[in-house]
């Protein structure tokens, strides 16, 4: 099955999985496990923690599939579920005196196929500059931009994944894009290149 599903394909695959068909579980894992791992590792820079949470998530899905609710966006459903598991795990580690896995060090990278924000003709240096600008932002700002612009979640879905209000999503995105524009403009003025990026950042805001 193709990686980018339509809404009707999301619904059909999820309902087939909930009905107990083994092939549907394999398809879910094949389509979303690598993407979920990248998202988790962007938040918690510890491979073992992310792998454990991801394994627990898919085990929970498999064992409770008949009791799961409907969804028309599987990625949204899985992102929200994985993030909650990571938060719980990080919270337990923090209570035991470990701050090694706190979300404050979250960093996001742009994958080759993640061109929702970035048009295919942009040079590698431009992509690198966008990544640098993104990772200058506070954790919450860069996570919201990642979810909305790179992973295609709606503003309400991003709000639910991150357990914040819709108004906070709008405000945070506006602030983040302003900060990215400033960073890109300063970089362009310093290097004397990449002027098209400023227009791109203005266009998406």
From TrEMBL:
Gene3D superfamilies per the UniProt record, alphabetical: 1.10.1740.10, Winged helix-like DNA-binding domain superfamily/Winged helix DNA-binding domain
Gene Ontology molecular function terms on file: DNA binding; sigma factor activity
Database matches in Pfam families: Sigma70_r2, Sigma70_r4_2
Keywords tagged on the record: Sigma factor, Transcription, Transcription regulation
A biological-process GO annotation: DNA-templated transcription initiation
Start and end residues of each RNA polymerase sigma factor 70 region 4 type domain: 130-177
Domain RNA polymerase sigma-70 region: 28-95
CDD domains: Sigma70_r4
Similarity section: Belongs to the sigma-70 factor family. ECF subfamily.
Protein name, entry field: RNA polymerase, sigma-24 subunit, ECF subfamily
Organism placement in taxonomy: Bacteria, Pseudomonadati, Bacteroidota, Cytophagia, Cytophagales
